[in-house]
Write a structure and sequence with these properties.
Elements: E1 2-8, H1 24-27, H2 31-38, E2 41-46, H3 56-63, H4 68-71, H5 75-82, E3 92-101, E4 107-109, H6 119-125, E5 134-139, E6 144-150, H7 175-190, H8 192-199, E7 207-215, H9 222-226, E8 230-233, H10 237-245, E9 249-250, H11 264-274, E10 280-285, H12 287-293, H13 297-309, E11 320-325, E12 329-331, E13 336-338, E14 342-347, H14 359-362, E15 368-371, H15 375-383
The protein binds zinc ion (ZN).
Zinc ion binds next to loops.
Length: 385
């Protein structure tokens, strides 16, 4: 039996008064998800917690059966792998925001007016040399980039310099990195692109805010661990990066953006097609999480309905275990990830009394409540009929 794992990021939520005390998933019209839930088995998953709140990268590792306490690398390496950087053992990778600071290094905008065109800035910064490390800065989407420090004995314990708040001064990081960030600041301040931005009334991208430092080391391959061939279909860089580091193949889908405008139809058809070649397909759909983080619970409901509308090609699959769940819940009213248990449906082997796919309905499912780290072993049991 093959496996199609569909992760709808941040799918579950708390009841919302404006939706009649229901969650976006409960109010969304989802006949196809209900079809799968009704003919499958359901339950709830407890998200893996390393800190107070669940995080996407950590929860993904857990749901692939990798204990984050052993295997978690930090956010930086996954982001780096997601934009195609080939990391080497010992590299330290960080997420970067092009940001705007004032003359006292107080943050004015953490995203430099959401600047898009950062290539000329990155090119200028690539000439900076620092003793003790080679630096690689690569553009991600929008105002984002990834920085890799490569050298002997680079410590991964680099605190974030991003104060996360406007009006606060940027923080110190580590010696090598501070030296680079100072030089980068000087170059960015004097860069013609920034002078032009100021002239046009735009915020200059004159500082690099860094966070999420992590050191790369090999992670045991997913395929070897489970004896699968596997692939990932995702729009968001982080998810591609996690899959890449676990050794999954990446399948590119035109128009898969990781945003609400993503090409859902294309992603789902590609997943169906990939089943011909692979044993395990990881299909990631991002925007339910981002919409909830913006507090847009109606948008989240609509997006869930849009996903449902596109599921038709999957309903006729044979000999495939289809799993639909999330990495964690995202509470629209809190605008952040939250610890609420996550509904799950598994279609293709067995049935219980659950009639629809929702947080409340799945509570009564036969799977009961399982820990995220126990999900993959559970799935494997279901595939060996
Ligand atoms: Zn997530």
């Amino acid at each position: 039996m093959k496996i199609l794992l569909i992760i709808i990021d941040g799918l579950s939520d708390r009841p919302i008064p404006q939706l009649g005390n229901k969650t976006p998933l409960e109010v969304a019209k989802t006949p196809k998800l209900d079809f799968l839930a009704k003919r499958g088995i359901c339950g709830l998953i407890e998200p893996y917690l390393m800190n107070e709140r669940p995080k996407s990268d950590i929860c993904h590792l857990a749901l692939f059966g990798y204990d984050p306490k052993i295997y978690y690398l930090g956010r930086g390496p996954y982001e780096a792998a997601g934009i195609g950087i080939k990391l080497r053992e010992g590299d330290v990778a960080l997420r970067v925001n092009f940001a705007t600071v004032d003359e006292n290094l107080k943050v004015i905008d953490r995203r430099a007016g959401r600047i898009e065109k950062t290539q000329p800035l990155i090119k200028a910064l690539s000439r900076v040399k620092i003793k003790g490390a080679n630096l690689l800065l690569k553009k991600s989407y929008g105002h984002r980039a990834v920085l890799v420090l490569r050298g002997k004995n680079i410590s991964p314990t680099i605190p974030d310099n991003d104060p996360q708040k406007v009006g606060e001064r940027v923080r110190k990081t580590a010696k090598i990195l501070d030296e680079f960030l100072d030089k980068a600041h000087q170059i960015l301040e004097n860069h013609p692109l920034n002078k032009k931005r100021i002239k046009n009334g735009l915020l200059p991208a004159n500082y690099l805010l860094v966070r999420g430092a992590g050191q790369f080391r090999e992670t045991p391959s997913f395929n070897k661990r489970y004896g699968f061939s596997s692939c990932c279909i995702a729009g968001g860089g982080l998810y591609k990066g996690i899959a890449k580091i676990l050794g999954m193949d990446l399948i590119k889908v035109e128009g898969a953006t990781g945003f609400a405008n993503t090409n859902l139809k294309g992603k789902i058809l590609s997943a169906k097609d990939a089943l011909k070649k692979y044993d395990f397909i990881f299909l990631h759909i991002k925007a339910a999480d981002s919409l909830a983080e913006d507090g847009n619970f109606r948008g989240k409901r609509d997006f869930i309905e849009k996903i449902d509308k596109n599921l038709k090609p999957l309903l006729s699959l044979k000999n495939v275990l289809i799993i639909v769940t999330a990495d964690h819940s995202t509470c629209s009213l809190l605008k952040r990830h939250c610890r609420e248990p996550i509904p799950i449906l598994i279609y293709g082997n067995g049935q219980d009394l659950v009639k629809e796919f929702s947080e409340k309905a799945c509570k009564k499912g036969r799977l009961g409540k399982i820990k995220q780290l126990d999900l993959t072993p559970r799935i494997l049991k279901l595939t060996s009929l």
